[in-house]
Write a structure and sequence with these properties.
CATH topology: Nucleotidyltransferase, domain 5
Number of domains: 1
Number of helices: 9
Mean pLDDT: 93
Number of strands: 5
CATH architecture: 2-Layer Sandwich
């Protein structure tokens, strides 16, 4: 059994022309219950080292944008070096515990143009990216299935989706997911009958799930990494120290784990 935690970055709603946020990113972290328990323990310990008793407050959470900016109350107390170190500690957990990372990005302008050419209004980028991500994870789960055994029945390996609250298209995604399981996805390049992701999409507030918070940090870094390359390309001499930190976080800690 895998728990699949999904979060996003770069969401501008119905505005598909944002020059600053041209890509809507969705990421998924797939982990077994044993991995989840270990990561939760580690994240609580990390939070305790940096924030003391504040880490046990009901409204405390790790949030990628807040760690990066250092502008919120919790993170203002940390130096830039501490915030980079915190990011490193959090994202290193993915590789340490063998979590699988999935990434999908929707180019909003291209999506809008395709919809216009086909004569229909564009669906929300989150719904489209969510469908692509579901296809990708289900395909991976299919490859994970145990080989047939003539002498013993082997249980299939399933996944359950846990996602950050998404009020804009929550019902649309939930109803879409039910249809993808029953009839297959609509028009994805991996279009398939979703067989190994079960039940429904379980939405939770991010402060209630350490793994959603970790997914948020990964999504933020992926979005920021894309922004660096749009603006500065491979000209590393133009990178700021924060740019270099983001490139390291994505290139060394996340990208090698993507499916």
């Amino acid at each position: 059994m895998y728990l699949v935690y999904i979060d996003e970055s770069g969401n501008t709603g119905a505005n598909l022309d944002s020059p600053d946020q041209p890509i809507h990113w969705l990421i998924a972290l797939a982990a077994t219950p044993a991995m989840v328990t270990q990561i939760e323990t580690e994240m609580l310990a990390i939070a305790g080292r940096y924030f003391g008793l504040r880490a046990r407050a009901a409204d405390f959470e790790f949030h990628g944008a807040h760690i990066f900016s250092g502008r919120t109350t919790d993170y203002r107390q940390l130096s830039v070096a501490d915030r980079v170190r915190l990011f490193n500690e959090l994202l290193s957990l993915i590789g340490r515990f063998g979590v699988r990372l999935f990434v999908r990005g929707i180019n909003k302008a291209a999506h809008k143009d395709r919809a216009r050419d086909k004569g229909y209004p564009p669906v929300h980028p989150h719904r489209l990216g969510f469908m692509y991500l579901v296809e990708q994870v289900d395909e991976w789960l299919e490859a994970m299935q145990p080989a047939p055994d003539l002498f013993a029945a082997r249980e299939p390996i399933y996944g359950l989706i846990v996602a950050d609250e998404q009020n804009e298209v929550r019902r649309d995604v939930v109803s879409g997911f039910a249809a993808w399981r029953q009839y297959g996805t609509e028009h994805g390049y991996r279009a398939r009958h979703i067989r190994y992701l079960i039940d429904t999409v379980h939405y939770v507030p991010s402060q209630d799930s350490w793994l959603i918070q970790l997914a948020d940090c990964v999504a933020f870094v992926r979005n920021r990494y894309g922004k660096i390359f749009r603006e500065k390309g491979f000209h590393e001499a133009r990178y700021s120290e924060s740019d270099r930190a983001i490139v390291h976080l994505w290139r060394d800690l996340c990208a090698p784990l993507t499916s």
